[in-house]
Amino acid sequence: MSHPAEARIKDLIHLTRRMREWIEAETALLKDHRPQELAGRAEEKSRLIAAYTRDMAAAKKDAPSLKGAPKALLDALRKETGLFRAALKEHEGLLGRLRRVSEGLIKSIADEVARKRATQLGYTAAGAAPRIPVTTNAIALNSVV
User: Fold this and answer.
1) What is the H or E stretch that residue 132 is in?
2) How many C-beta neighbours within 10 Å does residue 26 have?
3) What's the CA gap between 88 and 52, in Å, rounded?
4) pTM here?
5) Residue 132: what are its φ and ψ, rounded to 5°?
6) What is the 3-state secondary structure (H, E, C) of 31-86?
7) What's the distance, CA 24 to chain centroid?
8) What is the pLDDT of residues 94-114, one digit of tens each?
9) In the list 17, 23, 78, 116, which could disulfide-bond 87, CB 3.0-4.6 Å?
């Protein structure tokens, strides 16, 4: 006789695996320098996230009924959840590094533009042309990823 929560746990395992595979695929695309391919996957990502959030909330709400489920199934769910969290951690680290590189490039470009736009006023005592920095706010940075 099967436990009433077996189907729910199997669904959670399957959904968690799909989420992990999706995150691993996205991480691979980013590592392969192909971020443009992520745009076509946004709808699928949203759908998976919504389903995962909904199913996990339902499982937490009904946690007492899951406790009597077969140990092997609960172990499989824990294992898949651990793999999913590891994939998320790697993905988050990669996104953080990419964000820092992008911000560094933008800052370098903005600094170079500001340097080139700086006005010159006469010469210094050493004969060099001083530059007066011109502050520009042409580039707005958004720190939210």
Assistant:
1) strand 131-132
2) 19
3) 14
4) 0.72
5) -100, 120
6) HCCCHHHHHHHHHHHHHHHHHHHHHHHHHHHCHHHHCCCCHHHHHHHHHHHHHHHH
7) 11
8) 999 999 999 999 989 988 888
9) 23
